[in-house]
Design a protein that fits this description.
binds ligand KE4, 15 helices, alpha/beta, 434 residues
Length: 434
């Protein structure tokens, strides 16, 4: 029986009168999947209830922060304890030192951290820091990689920009964009060509070490180390944007999982446990270029917010539990296996990319190894699949160019239920294609 969304639809009508598009982040508007967004009422563990009291299994998890599931008790206890001590200080507090120390202890090559309030702030700061440290203006990013919405990084961006098909966002001036150089993911030759076209002008390379924003695209053997080698050859810094992968694909993130050394690493999402937190981190030699020790200015009213710091600490503490990542990895692999079986049974042209607890079902025979491959997907088929999954009670990102996020809270039974629902959804895709 199709689900009723009457209250969500009323909410969306009202929201559109006072919020552009009715949302505070474009990808939430379900703009490309032919449905009206569901408004959440509450969430717990792997479950979400909408304002029409429909229950869902949630595989978005607030786009990554809910690696433990919604409403984790230790996180809530830490937040409650801090609330009575103060919500925001705008002054140093011990919680921000403890979180910075925790990140330094867990992440390779990180000696100092600067807290900010979003992933966008973190990557924007990382680019400015690399430019200040090297004295160079240009930087290299990758087609389909999304690093937040700061001007220079919106060139050829993934995530919502790709979903909405916005040709390099109006409002970003040609002058600003002219210092952004765009390479092809998993293609070292395309990176080398850019370096050789401006050998002494490239400040840094910024990359999603595992892409989440063109859908999940995994780095091929040697790609990340190849970027490291090119940066060393041309005197540029390597920035790993770990806003998604940080503390998700390993406790030490991509540097631990792939054994590649970053000069700067950015975090977000998981380190705030759902509260607004971002972080720029790296060796002291680079980080000390940030004011007030160095000349590269960066600031923020709510940076190091005590409530957010305590939430992040309570979350990271639980990720340190022995066996946590092995269990999460097994769940991600189970989900991918279920999806691949559903694809095989349906006969639909689709393929699955997965790494750890991240996965994407691409509506293309694949392989999907870069933006060109992702962009070739049948997004109409994805929309049919999305609506069927939603009707069956499964929340997935409303875009072909995003990831599924598996959490500790998802049970094997729930992951198998996802596979069964996907089989039915793919059956609908197949029947509509006939
Ligand atoms: P925020 O400014 O949204 O906290 O972080 C920007 C960002 C930076 N780097 C990476 C690798 C990211 O994935 C993101 C943000 N991720 C998207 C989802 N793909 C956020 C969801 C949204 O835009 O609503």
């Amino acid at each position: 029986m199709a689900r009723v969304h009457a209250v969500s639809e009323q909410d969306f009508l009202r929201a559109r009168q006072v919020i552009p598009g009715g949302v505070n982040s474009p990808v939430r508007a379900f703009g490309k999947v032919g449905a009206s967004p569901v408004f959440y009422d509450h969430a717990k563990g792997s479950h979400v209830w909408d304002v029409d009291n429909n229950e869902y299994l949630d595989f978005i998890g607030s786009w990554g922060p809910m690696i433990l599931g919604h409403g984790n008790e230790q996180v809530l206890d830490a937040v409650r304890a801090q609330l009575d001590r103060g919500v925001s200080y705008g002054a140093p507090c011990e919680a921000e030192v403890r979180l910075a120390q925790k990140i330094c202890d867990l992440v390779p090559n990180v000696e100092k951290c600067r807290m900010v309030s979003s992933g966008t702030e973190a990557t924007m700061t990382a680019i400015r820091l690399a430019r200040g440290y090297t004295g160079r203006d240009k930087f290299i990013k990758f087609e389909g990689n999304y690093h937040g919405h700061s001007d220079a990084l919106l060139v050829s961006a993934g995530s919502g920009v790709a979903t909405l098909g916005i040709p390099d966002t109006p409002g970003v001036t040609a002058k600003t964009a002219s210092d952004t150089m765009v390479a092809r993911y998993n293609d070292l030759a395309s990176v080398r060509r850019l370096f050789e076209s401006a050998p002494a002008e490239v400040a840094c390379v910024i990359v999603e070490p595992v892409c989440g924003n063109m859908g999940v695209v995994v780095p091929e053997e040697g790609f990340l180390q190849g970027l490291r080698n090119l940066c060393d050859e041309f005197g540029a810094l390597l920035i790993l944007d770990e806003v998604i992968t940080g503390f998700r694909i390993a406790l030490g993130g991509a540097q631990e999982r792939f054994g590649v050394r970053a000069d700067i690493v950015t975090f977000g999402k998981i380190i705030g446990a759902g509260f607004p937190v971002g972080c720029v981190a790296g060796p002291a030699q680079v980080m000390d270029y940030l004011a007030p020790t160095g000349p590269v200015y960066q600031a923020g009213t709510l940076s190091g917010n005590p409530v957010a710091m305590e939430a992040g600490l309570a979350q990271l503490q639980q990720l340190c539990r022995p066996g946590f990542y092995e269990e999460l990895e097994a769940k991600g692999e189970r989900l991918a296996g279920n999806l691949r079986a559903a694809v095989a049974a349906s006969g639909v042209n689709a393929c699955v990319n997965q790494l750890g607890s991240l996965a994407t079902l691409f509506f293309s025979t694949g392989p999907v190894r870069d933006w060109e491959g992702a962009a070739a997907c049948d997004t109409d088929a994805f929309a049919v699949y999305f609506r069927s999954m939603l009707d069956q009670g499964f929340l997935i990102a409303p875009s072909q160019f995003e990831a599924l996020f598996v959490s500790q809270a998802h049970t094997k039974e729930e992951i198998d239920a996802f596979g069964s629902a996907a089989r039915r959804a793919l059956g609908e895709v197949a029947s509509k294609a006939r």
